[in-house]
# Entry
Amino acid sequence: MRKTLLLLSAAAVATTPVALSAQSGYRNLSPRYIQEAQQQNAAVIQEFGGAETGARGAYVEQIGRRVGVQSGVNPNQLRYTTLNSAVENAFAVPGGYIYITRQLMGLMNDEAELAFVLGHETGHVAANHAQARQQATQRNSIGGILGAIVGSVIGGGIGNVIGQLAQQGSQLNTLRFSRAQETDADRLGIGYIMRAGYDPGASVTMLQALGRATALEARVQGQDTRSTPEWASTHPLTETRVAQASQMARQTGRVGTGLRNRDAFLNQVDGVFVDDDPAQGVIEGRTFIHPDLRLSFTVPVGYLMQNGTDAVSIQGSAGQAQFTGGRYNGSLQTFISQRLQELTGGQTQIQLVDQNRTQVNGIPVEYVIGRAQTSSGIVDVSVFAYAFDQNSAYAFTMLTRGGQGIGAFQSMVNSLRRISAQEAASIRPRVIDVYTVRAGDTVQSLAGRMAYRNFQVERFLSLNGLAANARLVPGQRVKLVVLGARR
# Structure
């Protein structure tokens, strides 16, 4: 969740046009899709945390264009952007805009793996995969891709309403591709990177890295309160897909040859943020802390949080909630009405059950508890609004089953508090530190430096693509995740 009034960068990385001859044979993308991609680009970047516009962003653009020129698509119509998102993913839109998150980059171990991911996404564009999927759902505009909430969102019952509101970008699941399309994009990406001079075997090591990270994340979530947003599931990874990619790479006859450029890549990811960016708040156990907004709250035991750019969503067995902020004009009732309008679209009647004002940890609060009839039964809708300062207010919007009121969220609404300057200053990001192994270093000793409270060895092995019995060699470069400085 970004700081209210903070304007994140919405500019794509600048690109240098590729000189094309009249007989180049490159295929132009549809002007319609190009226009739509251009129009939605700023919103996509803002939704997913901003863009890397410095050396790292330029590096990704450079590798993307080196691969993209092999696709047959006019390279001047391809754009590659690195997003400041804590979710491992990459995706493309039909107009030639390809996005990759810095979290996914942190998982990679060389430039060839980066080239494969960008090539895979370019393959989706070149093969018109997204158009086919969007035509099937009749959702091929910015409204469809970024997911303006349609109709009476509460009308479908509790479902995943709060999740939709908290991550409107989750509508990027419309870009989910079929298994056949994923295989096709893998095939194309392998061909692109081979022709660009990279080792096609990078496709296999990259997919294996994703598999390791997915398996580890499943274990970590058993002891964590962080949930994975739906938009992160655009690329289902299966053992079959890894095996198919391995077969396709071997068929090139070039596995083990070509560039990997490990050192150049590690130089670029040195210092990259891992997990939450403190500028958007961080999740620590059951507590969400935002050092810039100077606030904190704690969710009930057993509930999961998802930290989006504009909101934090909370879900558990007894209900869902969303924490958001916005401009405050002095009337908390107006602020509450706006939250309810966003939730219902103005198309669902809410019967007032309770309305009052109070204080929580010295903060003025007004709340409304209402009840609505939905297709799934009666639902209680509650909004607790906090007058944080003269310009900003924050609110929990909660959905529970009819008759429960705020239910299990009672402790959460009472936990919101201001944090001190000292607490805010103590929140530091996790960053990748590229370390050169020295004599005497072991997996266990280096894993002990990982900035996590659990699964340190497993995280170190997964991050570096190492086997459990790996022995480190002096001079070898590895990635650590350590606490860094705020930016």
Summary: Residues 42 and 238 are 33 Å apart (CA to CA). The longest helix spans residues 202-221. The chain is about 35% helix and 20% strand. The mean pLDDT is 84.
